[in-house]
Each structure stands twice: as structure tokens, then as C-alpha cells.
From TrEMBL:
Name recorded for this polypeptide: N-acetyltransferase domain-containing protein
PANTHER family per the UniProt record, alphabetical: GNAT-FAMILY ACETYLTRANSFERASE (PTHR43415:SF3), SPERMIDINE N(1)-ACETYLTRANSFERASE (PTHR43415)
SUPFAM superfamilies xref list: Acyl-CoA N-acyltransferases (Nat)
One Pfam assignment: Acetyltransf_3
One of the record's GO molecular function terms: acyltransferase activity, transferring groups other than amino-acyl groups
Gene3D superfamilies reported in the protein's UniProt record: 3.40.630.30
Domain N-acetyltransferase, chain residue ranges per copy: 7-167
Superkingdom as given in the UniProt entry: Bacteria
Amino acid sequence: MLTGKKVVLRPVDIEKDFERCLGWINDRDVIHYLGKQLKPVIKEKERELLRKIATNESSVVFAIETREGTHIGLTGLHDINHFDGTAVTGTLIGDKKYWGRGYGTDAKMLLLWYAFTVLNLRRINSRVIEFNKRSLNCQLKCGYKVEGVMKKEVYKNGSYYDLVCLAVFRRGWMKRWRQYMKKSD
Ligand SMILES: CC(C)(COP(=O)(O)OP(=O)(O)OC[C@H]1O[C@@H](n2cnc3c(N)ncnc32)[C@H](O)[C@@H]1OP(=O)(O)O)[C@@H](O)C(=O)NCCC(=O)NCCS
């Protein structure tokens, strides 16, 4: 378990967490911001997918809980490459009433601390659809920098959108982490 200022990251418990996660990935407002397309969700297939992601050797997935113990989302490192020292992050606060209140930033900062300190990774990548300003702001706050744009990469409901590519390096990040943990908000 990793404890931040607002959240705790704990292992996923598929039996306990699955129905809640299913609700989130069935929510149009949530899907809108993800690479996923809107389509009927088959419960068993999604359960298997969550199990695969959570047990995949090249991924580490955490459930995000508030410090009071409410499960509000998921965050993880994927495509972990120990040779290059890289991974890709993905974060989902599924419970919308927690959006824009600093929970995503706290979860991401903890995940980066884990990636850099525990896994000894050195470069973490992320991709965001251009209109997802909340995610962009959240990542910039965590130290990611925009490295480029994949033009009209994503199709969503009749339009093509750019994908913004971001990355954060371990070098220099620890200072940001110490400042973040010191700051009282
Ligand atoms: C993206 C996500 C993880 C961010 O977590 P969060 O807890 O909502 O984000 P935070 O509150 O920590 O930070 C968001 C920042 O964006 C700002 N913000 C919030 N809503 C915004 C909006 N509509 N437009 C622009 N900025 C916005 C916030 O003010 C905050 O910045 P600030 O602290 O400098 O004011 C979460 O919103 C989420 O899971 N959304 C749905 C799924 C998703 O988009 N996943 C990421 C895919 S790349």
C-alpha cells in the first residue's frame, strides 16, 4: 500500500472491485476521455481483461482509494521495459464526483514515486486526447512535459482528434516530489 496526501494505492481485488470498475467503463462520460470506443460491454470478457491486466508481468495496477477508504479509481504502469527503464501510465478516476479535486494528481505522483524509486524506471510516457484538459493539466502538474502530437490519431463520434504525447524523467523529479509532499493544501 502506498499512502499519499489524499489517496491510498492498494492492490486490485478482482472479486471486490470488479462490479465498480464495470460501472466506470460503462459510463459514457468516462469513456469519452479514454482510447476506448462506446460498445456493449460483456461482463465476463471485461472481468477476464481486468484479470489479465492486473496479473500481466509487464503491468502494475493499483486501486485508488481515498484516505477514508472509498474506492474511486484505478492507476497503473503498462508496457514496463526494464531494459530501457520505461513504462506507460494510465489513470482513471471512475467516480466523477472526485474529478478536479486533486485525487488524480496525488495518485499519479504516488505512482511515479513507485515507478522511479521501487521499479528503478527512468522515463514514464503518457498519451492524452487533445480535449482532455483535466488530464493534461494533471500530468503537467506531476512533471510530465509535452514531447509531441500525433495528428488526428483518434476517432471519436464523427471526428478525428490529436493525441498529445507526454513524458516525465526521473532526473529532477525527486525534487518535485519532495516539494509536493511538503506543500499543505
Ligand atoms: C484525468 C484524471 C485522472 C485527473 O484526475 P483529477 O483528480 O480529476 O485531476 P486533478 O484535480 O488532480 O487535476 C486536474 C487539474 O486540471 C484542472 N481542471 C479540472 N477540470 C478542468 C477542465 N474542465 N478544463 C481544464 N482544466 C481542468 C484542475 O483545476 C486541476 O489543475 P489545478 O490543480 O492546477 O487547478 C481524472 O479526471 C479522470 O480519471 N478522468 C476520466 C478518465 C481520464 O481522463 N483518464 C485519463 C486518460 S489520459
